[in-house]
């Protein structure tokens, strides 16, 4: 099986990528939708250009797709990038969003290929906890939830810190896996990569939310 991996560079994309590798499939490319607008209900915005570095480490092609973030421009741009690739389908890190999953599946059907969502409806705590235990270096790149302050920006999750994050999620009632946009991530290394990213960044914090800028 030859597949593309839809990747934002974050933890869910990395887990889906690793899953495809564990199936013995050939990863044709990492495909990133770069949003030029201010928001997107489908795709992550911070740090996506660093997927190019992940692809370089892995020795696979990086396909960058530019889209405004509006519907249906986002998936039309993605479909154009995928339709001429020699792939059986694509793998994505959709975890809970029916909106994301159903739109991707309809696009795949139009293209005559398959869409795999191996993380679908996994338990959020177990999903991230297992990734940390398996050596994924998950760095938090943005926070926007009560209970998450500037000290989390740039932090690489450990078993202990993820346990603290879980307690904060229970107390402040946010999704521990960040599915509601409470935080975003970048994976610096893990079992899916032969090396790790070396990056420089600075943090911005406005008192309630914050994000990293990469240099």
Description:
By secondary structure, the chain is of the alpha/beta class. The protein folds into two domains: 2-116, 3-Layer(aba) Sandwich (Rossmann fold); 124-214, putative n-type atp pyrophosphatase, domain 2, CATH 3.90.1490.10. It has six helices and nine strands; from the N terminus they run βαβαβαβαβαβαβββ. The protein has helices spanning 11-22, 51-58, 73-82, 98-111, 124-133, 159-172, and strands spanning 2-6, 26-35, 61-67, 89-91, 114-116, 137-143, 183-189, 201-205, 210-214. It has a five-stranded parallel beta sheet. Strands 7-6-9-8 form a four-stranded antiparallel beta sheet, with no helix packed on it. α3 (73-82) packs across α4. It is globular, with a radius of gyration of 16 Å.
What is the topology?
Elements: E1 2-6, H1 11-22, E2 26-35, H2 51-58, E3 61-67, H3 73-82, E4 89-91, H4 98-111, E5 114-116, H5 124-133, E6 137-143, H6 159-172, E7 183-189, E8 201-205, E9 210-214
Parallel strand pairs: 1-2, 1-4, 2-3, 4-5
Antiparallel strand pairs: 6-7, 6-9, 8-9
Helix pairs in contact: 3-4
